[in-house]
């Protein structure tokens, strides 16, 4: 429904359903912020985008949506999210088959319930989503395979044109080796230190005259992106002119940018998962999360490196409170380790 990465992780299941039921009409219900992920999905007949409202506005929106879903007379409703809103919408659709997880207090809304352990297991989120398919049709019970069913987000041609204009305005040549570093995150549990990002960006820019580093960030982190940009440019000296501000791109534009990039670096957040729908090499940074749960789910031939601090007694965590209080799972990731991984992938791509 909402989180960008979680929506990306459902796309292998969408492909599998379309392959199993080629005559079926597949509709995807998603909140507006994540709707670009599935807007161009070729397996979907319809994408229903709903606002993330609160209070009485949400109640009114959900009643209207429930009526719309019920009028559509769906045969099957699959709740990939498991939250209160999505569970209620699945129930309100009145689909004869309603599939969801055995979350306490919500199982009555489904006809087919799938067990999901509550502990944080070292099992990929795509596989957790995939578990729901067997409750739709036993033939879909086979293991998920990233070489067969990868995550996908087809690029939007209009977004591609917008990115080309943006890079041209930034002075980036057509033959440049574009490195995208996403320097922000939705919460402090995914945010690598700004000083580390600045060191990484400056060192990568200084590594070759054809390299251009594009710093991307969300609208809520504009000031953080600006600080990283300023520090990186100072440290990089003359190469600092090739470190530029790419903040403010839409999800569709970020996806299009990946087809121009030779490398993406970022934390375990939505932009990394958008990048994983392309073939760009990725260096992912994992703090309180595990790469085993959320590393790029795509063919094994596509270069990927996952960097973390190693074993900590508090890792992984539920990202509600940092027990040590210092976010050591992130601050302990050395910029040199990330730089080394980036150089390996850049060398493999040259």
Describe the structure in your own words.
It is globular and about 65 Å long. 36% of the residues lie in helices and 15% in strands. The strands form 3 sheets. The chain has a 6-stranded parallel beta sheet with strand order 8-7-6-9-10-11. The protein has helices at 4-20, 55-72, 84-92, 125-130, 157-169, 194-205, 222-236, 251-258, 270-275, 291-294, 328-331, 335-349, and strands at 27-31, 46-50, 76-78, 97-101, 112-114, 177-182, 211-216, 243-245, 261-267, 282-286, 304-308. The mean pLDDT is 94. The protein is α/β, with parallel strands linked by helices and 350 residues long. Helix 5 packs across helix 8, helix 6 (194-205) crosses helix 7 and helix 6 packs parallel to helix 12.
In short:
By secondary structure, the chain is an alpha/beta fold. The chain is 36% helix and 15% strand.
CATH architecture of the largest domain: 3-Layer(aba) Sandwich
Straight-line N-to-C gap: 39 Å
Give the % helix: 25-40%
What does the oligomeric state look like here?
A: single chain
Major β-sheet profile:
6 strands, parallel
| Spatial strand arrangement across the major sheet | 8-7-6-9-10-11
Overall form: globular
Low-pLDDT segments, ≥5 res = none
The secondary structure category is: alpha/beta
What's the domain count?
2
The number of helical elements comes to 12
- Which band does the percent of strand residues land in? 15-25%
- Which fold name corresponds to the CATH topology of the largest domain? Rossmann fold
Can you write the helix and strand succession as a string? HEEHEHEEHHEHEHEHEHEHEHH
How many individual β-strands?
Answer: 11
CATH class of the largest domain: Alpha Beta
Instruction: Output the radius of gyration.
Output: 21 Å
Question: What average pLDDT do the residues reach?
Answer: 94
CATH superfamily of the largest domain: Glycogen Phosphorylase B
């Amino acid at each position: 429904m909402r989180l960008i990465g979680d929506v990306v992780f459902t796309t292998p299941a969408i492909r599998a359903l379309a392959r199993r039921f080629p005559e079926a009409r597949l509709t995807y219900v998603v909140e507006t912020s994540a709707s670009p992920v599935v807007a161009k999905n070729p397996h979907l007949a319809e994408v229903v985008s709903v606002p993330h409202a609160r209070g009485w506005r949400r109640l009114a929106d959900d009643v209207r949506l429930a009526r719309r879903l019920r009028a559509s007379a769906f045969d099957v409703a699959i709740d990939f999210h498991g939250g209160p809103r999505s569970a209620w919408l699945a129930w309100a659709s009145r689909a004869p088959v309603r599939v969801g997880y055995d979350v306490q207090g919500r199982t009555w809304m489904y006809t087919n319930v799938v067990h999901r352990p509550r502990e944080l297991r070292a099992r990929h989120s795509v596989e957790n989503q995939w578990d729901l398919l067997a409750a739709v049709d036993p033939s879909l019970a086979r293991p998920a395979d990233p070489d067969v069913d990868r995550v996908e987000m087809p690029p939007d041609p209009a977004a591609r044109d917008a990115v080309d204009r943006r890079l041209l305005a930034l002075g980036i040549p057509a033959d440049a080796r574009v490195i995208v570093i996403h320097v922000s995150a939705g919460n402090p549990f995914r945010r690598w230190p700004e000083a580390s990002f600045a060191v990484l960006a400056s060192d990568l820019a200084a590594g070759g005259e054809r390299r251009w580093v594009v710093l991307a960030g969300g609208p809520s982190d504009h000031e953080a992106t600006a600080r990283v940009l300023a520090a990186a440019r100072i440290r990089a000296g003359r190469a600092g002119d090739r470190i530029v501000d790419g903040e403010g791109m839409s999800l569709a534009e970020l996806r299009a940018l990946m087809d121009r990039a030779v490398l993406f670096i970022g934390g375990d957040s939505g932009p990394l998962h958008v990048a994983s729908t392309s073939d760009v090499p990725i260096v992912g940074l994992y703090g309180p999360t595990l790469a085993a749960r959320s590393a790029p789910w795509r063919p094994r031939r596509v270069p990927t490196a996952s960097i973390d601090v190693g074993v900590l007694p508090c890792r992984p965590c539920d990202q509600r409170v940092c027990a040590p209080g210092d976010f050591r799972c992130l601050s302990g990731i050395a910029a040199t380790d990330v730089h080394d991984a980036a150089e390996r992938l850049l060398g493999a791509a040259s």
